[in-house]
Automatic annotation (TrEMBL):
Gene3D superfamilies: 2.60.120.200. CDD domains: LamG (cd00110). This is CNTP2 protein. Residues 1-164 form the Laminin G domain. SMART domains: LamG. It comes from Smithornis capensis. SUPFAM superfamilies: Concanavalin A-like lectins/glucanases. InterPro entries: ConA-like_dom_sf (IPR013320), Laminin_G (IPR001791), Neurexin-related_CASP (IPR050372).
Length: 245
Protein backbone atom coordinates (compact mmCIF):
# COMPACT_ATOMS: atom_id res chain seq x y z
CA UNK A 1 0.00 0.00 0.00
CA UNK A 2 1.16 3.49 -0.82
CA UNK A 3 -1.08 6.01 0.89
CA UNK A 4 -1.22 9.79 1.14
CA UNK A 5 -3.99 9.68 3.76
CA UNK A 6 -4.54 7.27 6.63
CA UNK A 7 -7.14 7.01 9.38
CA UNK A 8 -6.52 4.41 12.09
CA UNK A 9 -8.73 4.06 15.15
CA UNK A 10 -9.12 1.54 17.97
CA UNK A 11 -9.87 1.11 21.65
CA UNK A 12 -7.70 -0.82 24.09
CA UNK A 13 -7.41 -1.72 27.74
CA UNK A 14 -4.52 -3.42 29.50
CA UNK A 15 -2.77 -3.77 32.83
CA UNK A 16 0.65 -4.04 31.12
CA UNK A 17 2.87 -0.98 30.77
CA UNK A 18 4.68 -2.19 27.59
CA UNK A 19 3.41 -3.64 24.32
CA UNK A 20 3.12 -3.08 20.56
CA UNK A 21 -0.43 -2.08 19.59
CA UNK A 22 0.19 -2.12 15.83
CA UNK A 23 3.09 -2.09 13.41
CA UNK A 24 3.65 -1.81 9.67
CA UNK A 25 6.81 -1.41 7.59
CA UNK A 26 7.97 -1.37 4.00
CA UNK A 27 11.03 -2.03 1.85
CA UNK A 28 11.71 1.68 1.34
CA UNK A 29 12.41 2.15 5.06
CA UNK A 30 8.91 3.43 5.84
CA UNK A 31 7.30 2.27 9.07
CA UNK A 32 4.57 3.09 11.56
CA UNK A 33 4.55 1.67 15.10
CA UNK A 34 2.11 2.46 17.88
CA UNK A 35 3.13 1.05 21.26
CA UNK A 36 2.95 1.42 25.00
CA UNK A 37 6.17 2.35 26.77
CA UNK A 38 6.21 2.88 30.53
CA UNK A 39 2.39 3.10 30.35
CA UNK A 40 2.58 6.00 27.86
CA UNK A 41 1.53 5.91 24.21
CA UNK A 42 4.34 6.27 21.66
CA UNK A 43 3.85 6.70 17.90
CA UNK A 44 6.93 6.11 15.72
CA UNK A 45 6.55 7.06 12.08
CA UNK A 46 8.87 7.29 9.09
CA UNK A 47 7.64 8.28 5.62
CA UNK A 48 11.10 7.64 4.18
CA UNK A 49 14.74 8.53 4.69
CA UNK A 50 17.67 8.46 2.27
CA UNK A 51 21.02 6.74 2.72
CA UNK A 52 22.95 10.02 2.55
CA UNK A 53 21.35 11.16 5.77
CA UNK A 54 20.24 14.49 4.32
CA UNK A 55 16.61 13.32 4.57
CA UNK A 56 15.91 11.80 7.96
CA UNK A 57 12.27 10.84 8.31
CA UNK A 58 12.05 9.25 11.77
CA UNK A 59 9.46 10.98 13.97
CA UNK A 60 8.46 9.96 17.49
CA UNK A 61 5.62 11.41 19.55
CA UNK A 62 4.60 10.48 23.10
CA UNK A 63 1.25 11.15 24.76
CA UNK A 64 -0.79 10.10 27.79
CA UNK A 65 0.26 8.37 31.00
CA UNK A 66 -0.90 5.61 33.36
CA UNK A 67 -2.55 3.82 30.42
CA UNK A 68 -2.08 0.43 32.13
CA UNK A 69 -5.09 1.06 34.41
CA UNK A 70 -7.28 -1.60 32.72
CA UNK A 71 -9.78 1.01 31.55
CA UNK A 72 -10.79 1.51 27.91
CA UNK A 73 -8.76 4.14 26.03
CA UNK A 74 -9.54 5.32 22.51
CA UNK A 75 -6.97 6.24 19.84
CA UNK A 76 -7.46 7.96 16.50
CA UNK A 77 -4.56 8.64 14.12
CA UNK A 78 -5.35 10.87 11.12
CA UNK A 79 -2.60 11.48 8.61
CA UNK A 80 -2.61 13.68 5.51
CA UNK A 81 0.88 13.66 4.05
CA UNK A 82 3.22 14.88 6.76
CA UNK A 83 0.44 16.35 8.91
CA UNK A 84 -0.67 14.11 11.76
CA UNK A 85 -3.45 14.39 14.32
CA UNK A 86 -3.01 11.94 17.20
CA UNK A 87 -6.06 11.77 19.49
CA UNK A 88 -5.99 9.87 22.78
CA UNK A 89 -9.21 9.89 24.81
CA UNK A 90 -10.40 13.03 22.96
CA UNK A 91 -7.15 14.90 23.65
CA UNK A 92 -5.70 15.81 20.24
CA UNK A 93 -2.05 16.50 19.45
CA UNK A 94 -1.02 17.89 16.05
CA UNK A 95 2.46 17.50 14.58
CA UNK A 96 4.37 17.26 11.29
CA UNK A 97 6.68 14.40 10.44
CA UNK A 98 10.38 14.90 9.74
CA UNK A 99 11.77 14.41 6.24
CA UNK A 100 10.42 15.43 2.85
CA UNK A 101 8.13 12.55 1.86
CA UNK A 102 4.32 12.47 1.95
CA UNK A 103 3.49 8.84 1.14
CA UNK A 104 3.53 5.88 3.52
CA UNK A 105 4.78 2.75 1.71
CA UNK A 106 3.80 -0.40 3.62
CA UNK A 107 4.42 -3.42 1.42
CA UNK A 108 4.65 -5.97 4.26
CA UNK A 109 1.86 -7.02 6.63
CA UNK A 110 0.29 -4.69 9.15
CA UNK A 111 0.15 -6.43 12.52
CA UNK A 112 -2.07 -5.64 15.48
CA UNK A 113 -1.09 -6.70 19.00
CA UNK A 114 2.58 -7.26 18.19
CA UNK A 115 5.18 -7.23 15.46
CA UNK A 116 6.75 -10.10 13.51
CA UNK A 117 10.31 -11.01 14.38
CA UNK A 118 12.44 -9.37 11.69
CA UNK A 119 15.90 -10.05 13.09
CA UNK A 120 16.39 -6.33 13.69
CA UNK A 121 17.71 -5.41 17.15
CA UNK A 122 14.67 -3.18 17.74
CA UNK A 123 12.14 -5.97 17.20
CA UNK A 124 13.24 -8.41 19.91
CA UNK A 125 13.30 -5.78 22.63
CA UNK A 126 9.64 -4.96 22.06
CA UNK A 127 6.89 -6.84 23.84
CA UNK A 128 3.66 -7.93 22.23
CA UNK A 129 0.49 -6.31 23.50
CA UNK A 130 -1.32 -8.16 26.29
CA UNK A 131 -4.88 -7.04 26.86
CA UNK A 132 -8.07 -6.27 24.93
CA UNK A 133 -8.75 -4.27 21.77
CA UNK A 134 -12.02 -3.44 20.07
CA UNK A 135 -13.34 -1.36 17.16
CA UNK A 136 -10.06 -1.62 15.20
CA UNK A 137 -10.58 0.36 12.00
CA UNK A 138 -7.84 0.81 9.40
CA UNK A 139 -8.66 3.10 6.44
CA UNK A 140 -12.32 2.10 6.45
CA UNK A 141 -11.70 -1.61 7.08
CA UNK A 142 -13.22 -3.04 10.26
CA UNK A 143 -10.27 -5.24 11.25
CA UNK A 144 -11.97 -6.71 14.35
CA UNK A 145 -14.96 -7.88 12.31
CA UNK A 146 -12.79 -9.25 9.48
CA UNK A 147 -10.62 -11.15 11.97
CA UNK A 148 -13.65 -12.63 13.72
CA UNK A 149 -15.14 -13.78 10.40
CA UNK A 150 -11.69 -15.10 9.36
CA UNK A 151 -11.64 -12.89 6.27
CA UNK A 152 -8.00 -11.88 6.72
CA UNK A 153 -5.21 -13.87 5.06
CA UNK A 154 -2.97 -14.55 6.87
CA UNK A 155 -5.05 -13.66 9.91
CA UNK A 156 -3.80 -14.56 13.36
CA UNK A 157 -0.66 -15.92 14.96
CA UNK A 158 -1.25 -17.68 18.27
CA UNK A 159 -4.50 -17.77 20.22
CA UNK A 160 -6.99 -14.94 19.81
CA UNK A 161 -10.25 -14.96 21.75
CA UNK A 162 -13.13 -12.68 20.88
CA UNK A 163 -13.99 -11.87 24.47
CA UNK A 164 -12.34 -9.73 27.13
CA UNK A 165 -11.36 -11.41 30.38
CA UNK A 166 -11.59 -9.18 33.43
CA UNK A 167 -8.69 -9.35 35.91
CA UNK A 168 -9.28 -10.96 39.31
CA UNK A 169 -7.68 -8.12 41.27
CA UNK A 170 -10.11 -5.99 43.26
CA UNK A 171 -9.00 -2.38 43.81
CA UNK A 172 -9.79 -0.40 46.96
CA UNK A 173 -10.37 3.35 46.81
CA UNK A 174 -9.51 5.45 49.86
CA UNK A 175 -10.62 9.00 50.50
CA UNK A 176 -8.92 11.31 52.99
CA UNK A 177 -10.68 9.79 56.03
CA UNK A 178 -11.08 6.09 55.18
CA UNK A 179 -8.73 3.22 56.01
CA UNK A 180 -8.74 -0.57 55.95
CA UNK A 181 -7.91 -2.46 59.14
CA UNK A 182 -7.06 -6.16 59.05
CA UNK A 183 -6.18 -8.52 61.93
CA UNK A 184 -2.52 -9.17 62.59
CA UNK A 185 -0.87 -12.60 62.93
CA UNK A 186 0.35 -13.20 66.48
CA UNK A 187 3.38 -15.42 67.30
CA UNK A 188 4.95 -14.90 63.86
CA UNK A 189 8.60 -13.90 63.45
CA UNK A 190 8.07 -12.63 59.88
CA UNK A 191 6.27 -9.46 58.85
CA UNK A 192 5.60 -9.40 55.09
CA UNK A 193 3.32 -7.14 53.05
CA UNK A 194 3.01 -6.20 49.36
CA UNK A 195 0.60 -4.04 47.38
CA UNK A 196 0.27 -1.83 44.31
CA UNK A 197 -0.91 1.75 44.69
CA UNK A 198 -1.67 4.72 42.50
CA UNK A 199 -2.34 8.29 43.56
CA UNK A 200 -2.02 11.90 42.44
CA UNK A 201 -1.25 13.00 46.02
CA UNK A 202 2.43 13.49 46.97
CA UNK A 203 1.82 12.74 50.69
CA UNK A 204 -0.10 10.10 52.61
CA UNK A 205 0.12 7.18 55.02
CA UNK A 206 0.16 3.87 53.12
CA UNK A 207 0.56 1.33 55.94
CA UNK A 208 0.95 1.22 59.71
CA UNK A 209 1.26 -1.71 62.11
CA UNK A 210 2.23 -2.13 65.75
CA UNK A 211 4.35 -5.13 66.65
CA UNK A 212 3.16 -7.44 69.42
CA UNK A 213 4.38 -7.13 73.03
CA UNK A 214 5.14 -3.41 72.51
CA UNK A 215 8.23 -4.26 70.48
CA UNK A 216 7.72 -1.27 68.18
CA UNK A 217 5.96 -0.52 64.89
CA UNK A 218 6.37 -0.20 61.12
CA UNK A 219 5.12 2.68 59.02
CA UNK A 220 5.13 3.12 55.23
CA UNK A 221 4.24 6.52 53.87
CA UNK A 222 4.43 8.76 50.84
CA UNK A 223 6.38 11.95 51.51
CA UNK A 224 6.78 14.48 48.65
CA UNK A 225 6.35 11.70 46.09
CA UNK A 226 8.88 9.35 47.73
CA UNK A 227 8.06 6.12 49.53
CA UNK A 228 9.52 5.99 53.04
CA UNK A 229 9.66 3.02 55.41
CA UNK A 230 10.14 3.64 59.14
CA UNK A 231 10.75 0.75 61.51
CA UNK A 232 10.78 1.55 65.23
CA UNK A 233 12.19 -1.16 67.49
CA UNK A 234 11.80 -0.34 71.16
CA UNK A 235 14.35 -2.85 72.55
CA UNK A 236 17.28 -2.19 70.19
CA UNK A 237 20.18 0.24 70.55
CA UNK A 238 19.57 1.65 67.09
CA UNK A 239 15.86 1.87 67.63
CA UNK A 240 14.77 3.46 64.34
CA UNK A 241 15.45 2.41 60.76
CA UNK A 242 14.49 4.76 57.88
CA UNK A 243 14.48 3.74 54.21
CA UNK A 244 13.46 6.09 51.42
CA UNK A 245 13.06 5.45 47.68
Amino acid sequence: MKTLKDVISLKFKTSESEGVIFHGEGQQGDYITLELKKAKLVLNLNLGSNQLGSIYGHTSVMTGSLLDDHHWHSIVIERHGRNINLTLDRHMQHFRTNGEFDYLDLDYEITFGGMPFSGKPSSNSRKNFKGCMESINYNGNNITDLAKRKKLEPSNVGNLSFSCVEPHTVPVFFNATSYLEVPGRPSQDLFSVSFFFRTWNPNGLLLFSNFADELGNVEVDLNEGKVSVHINVSQAKKNRIDISS
